[in-house]
Design a protein that fits this description.
The chain has 201 residues and is an all-alpha fold. 54% of the residues lie in helices and 0% in strands.
């Protein structure tokens, strides 16, 4: 057996284990569990690469995204059965599914990372931000760890797809700072968000 074949088999076992653990975690909520089952079925049949996500620190991002999207069933505005699926890699696939289920309005792709955020004290809040923005709320109106100006909001929403949410906030603040020295207070509050990417002022 080649190393590539061993890797594929190992990842398949990791994925199966993550799915089993997800079912166990959701066992006490029949509705959420049923939703997870439906999302998993659609992912397997319409976006198989979503489950190709690499396991990191014991967490499978693709499975975690399905779990969290199931937990936010109350925010769904479309049925998963209407999702056409995607052949894209796992990150765009998560974004596509989240946008379909929750997005009344288009949400920047980098915010979809909220659905597989795990070991993060702000993980649930990030998902709340996604839902609120998808429903039409401006980013500036959300319960953020900083007071965001219009310029910062514009820069933040233009962030690259791969950028972590914390880094997108840092980038937006710093770029706005170079253009406007009269920013509102922010840095002392941002230190609560992973010490604002581990670089407090």
């Amino acid at each position: 057996m080649s190393s590539a074949e061993r890797f594929v088999r190992h990842h398949r076992r990791q994925t199966d284990r993550a799915i089993s653990q997800a079912y166990a975690r959701l066992a006490t909520d029949a509705i959420v569990k049923a939703t997870f089952h439906e999302l998993l079925y659609c992912a397997r049949n319409r976006a198989r690469r979503l489950l190709d996500a690499p396991v990191v620190n014991g967490h499978h991002p693709g499975v975690e995204a399905l779990v969290n999207l199931s937990r936010f069933r109350w925010a769904h505005v479309r049925a998963v059965t209407d999702w056409p699926g995607t052949s894209a890699s796992w990150r765009p696939a998560v974004c596509s599914l989240a946008q379909h289920l929750i997005g009344k309005y288009t949400v920047p792709a980098f915010l979809a990372a909220s659905w597989y955020a795990t070991d993060d004290p702000f993980a649930e809040k990030k998902r709340d931000w996604f839902v609120a923005h998808a429903c039409g709320a401006s980013v500036r109106s959300l319960d953020l760890p900083l007071d965001m100006t219009r310029k910062m909001e514009h820069i933040f929403l233009m962030s690259r797809d791969h950028l972590a949410i914390e880094h997108a906030m840092r980038r937006a603040e710093l770029l706005a700072l170079t253009r406007n020295q009269n920013l509102p207070r922010s840095s002392h509050r941002l230190s609560d968000l992973h010490d604002f990417v581990c670089h407090p002022y």
